[in-house]
Amino acid sequence: MSRIGPTLEALRSQGRTALVPFITAGDPRLEATVPALNALVQGGADLLELGVPFSDPEADGPAIQAASERALANGTGLRDALDCVAEFRSGNDRTPVILMGYLNSVLAMGEGAFATAAAAAGVDGAIIVNLPPEESEPLRGALAQQGIDLILLAAPTTSDERLSAIDRAASGFVYLVSLKGTTGADHISVSEVNQNLTRLRARTQLPVLVGFGIKDGPTARALGERADGVVVGAAIVSRMAALSADAGAIPAALRQFVSEVRQALDA
Q1: Per-residue pLDDT tens for 203-233?
Q2: Which residue among the candidates 27, 46, 60, 149 is catalytic per the annotation?
Q3: For a tag on the chain, would you pick the N or C end, based on fewer CB atoms within 10 A?
Q4: Is the pTM of this model over 0.90?
């Protein structure tokens, strides 16, 4: 059974906003991934999002694109990402882990094989960026059989009709993209995000988490006042890139940054 629903429900009952950091598996090197995941939890992460490197990540901005390029140069693929989750699970059976990637990687493995391998590794959810809800049934069914949530994205431009379709196909939560653009952009309008959040909440009973462009504690707090959770990616990946020559320093830097965001959310 997925850990996502119970975790978000527990946080909601405590009046707390979920903090979901993102990193890319294999960036800056594969052996740095699991220590980074552990450091994020130690800093205050409630759920974790682990990116699967892909050669054409069209939804991602420069920072996460570069992270994928570094990971691919290291030879990291989907199976390596699953191995990282399994290693993380050997010391943490509580924190939900969500894989984020693109459909091509899943299809190359096969939807059923992917779902089985993800469950064996301890994955709780999957975000497949370029999977439309109308075409999600085969993967959704395979994941559901393994107790894994399929999390779908809603954009500012998504129509009301399509939001309802997303609600019917999604589980775990709905990921609301905060802006028109790619990850790491810096032109978030809190009022516009709240308008889209209101529109989405009218069409789903699932928790709604907001991501893209959340770079620091104040931004996370502003969006987290109404969202069930916030996803922070590019800001973390950029810090890891700056320390790529000294991977041993990455865990401490991540703990510090995530702790600052956590404190802002809880203030």
Answers
A1: 999 999 999 989 999 999 999 999 999 999 9
A2: 60
A3: C
A4: yes
Reference 37, options 102, 83, 69; nearest CA is: 83
The contacts of residue 188 (CB under 8 Å, 6+ apart) are 178, 179, 213, 214, 219, 223
**Known catalytic residue: 49?**
yes
Active site residue 56: no
DSSP secondary structure code for residue 3 in this structure: S
Contact between 265 and 51 (Cβ < 8 Å) = no
- Dihedral sign computed on CA atoms, order 57, 62, 64, 65: positive
* Coil, helix or strand at residue 157: coil
What are 23-38's pLDDT values in tens digits? 999 999 999 999 999 9
The CA R_g of the chain, rounded to the nearest whole Å, is 17
Maximum Cα interatomic distance, the chain, rounded to a whole number of Å? 49
Q: Which one from 27, 31, 46, 49 is the annotated catalytic residue? A: 49
229 in Cβ contact with 46 (< 8 Å): yes
Give 164-203 as a DSSP string. HHHHHH--S-EEEE-SSS-TT-----HHHHHHHHHHHHTT
